[in-house]
Amino acid sequence: MMISSFHPPERTLMGPGPSDVSPRVLAALARPTIGHLDPEFIRMMDEIKQLLQYAFNTQNELTMPVSAPGSAGMEACFVNLVEPGDKVIVCQNGVFGGRMAENVRRFGGEVILVEDEWGQPVDLNKVESAFKANNGVKALAFVHAETSTGVRSDAAALAKLARDNGALTIMDAVTSLGGIEVDLDGWGIDAVYSGTQKCLSAPPGISPVSFSERAVAQVRDRQSTVPSWFLDKNLVMGYWGEGTKRAYHHTAPVNALYALHESLLMLKQEGLEQAWARHDHYHQALKAGLEAMGLSLLVDEAYRLPQLNTVTIPDGVDEARVRSRLLSQYSLEIGAGLGALAGKVWRIGLMGHGCNSRNVLLCLGALESALIAEGVKLESGAATAAAAAVMA
């Protein structure tokens, strides 16, 4: 078979991630590669750190991008903070809380699982009861924005519960960073990880993380060696620390970090609160259009994510055929349900650069056409008209 250069199709990405990448960020990827210890690259590393501190709302010294996807950021938090025998309360209300629990088990910790129904936020009363029933809990782990369900949990209240009980907090902010409020210092979060491919709208493959001084002290005072050499924060800080002299740890993904720098700069130029407001504005427009088609959102409005809309599939509709039609006819990607929600919902992302009026109208028009083809009785054009009215 003759193999030639790969030229991907142009897609509009409105699934749970990755999201559409801005031309500015794509152009940054194509800039000349320089050495990962080059003085100019080190200068840029310092700027990335400052921009991540801005995005996370933190002054944490240990704030940096892990040279691997969000799953590695998750592992970086757990492998550094969890030792054999440590008790960790893990909140699971979707797929990614389950992955947190698996990390705790693999590093020898004891999982105290707090489970909630998929589509519901973490129940604070259950977490409080778990602390009362278990002495010496090391950490509380929870997902701020559960990508599998579109639910936002109350990070500030969860962090306060942890502090009141002398425990650290480990937070998944993969889908929340850049899309809704994240305030590490204001909430008192000790360790957090995110991803570049959601509301930051950079290519997948990098995971921003941040550790509080309290968390750093726990890492330094460990009784056992961090079992991952690559993710050991004691070692990585020699490369991502302050000053021009850096200790070689690994070859950083130079061009991918150019892209992250550009995406974070775009976030700073827009402003955090403006970015959060934009995500909410276009979510309201999409919601109006979906409701005009008779569709409903799974998650209650009080804790619904604007950047990840979980839509209940109408009875009798072949959800996979609808997604396939959107992809083949409109080059539009939306996501399927995961786990307990597989076959029951679509997940429509409005993330970062892809959170705009064009994508809202494209998605609604394409979905309306696909549903009509499935035999659903709809008023043609009502969805886009409802969305346009909100955007006006």
Write a brief caption for the model.
With 392 residues, this protein is of the alpha/beta class.
What does this structure look like?
The protein is an alpha/beta fold. The chain has 2 domains: 23-268, Aspartate Aminotransferase, domain 2; 272-391, Alpha-Beta Complex (Aspartate Aminotransferase, domain 1), CATH 3.90.1150. The chain is built from 14 helices and 14 strands. The strands form 4 sheets. Strands 2-10-9-8-5-3-4 form a 7-stranded mixed beta sheet, with helices on both faces. Strands 11-14-13 form a 3-stranded antiparallel beta sheet, covered by helices on one side. The protein has a two-stranded parallel ribbon with strand order 1-12. A hairpin with an 8-residue loop joins strand 13 and strand 14. Belongs to the class-V pyridoxal-phosphate-dependent aminotransferase family. Residues 33-337 form the Aminotransferase class V domain. Its cofactor is pyridoxal 5'-phosphate. This is Alanine--glyoxylate aminotransferase family protein.
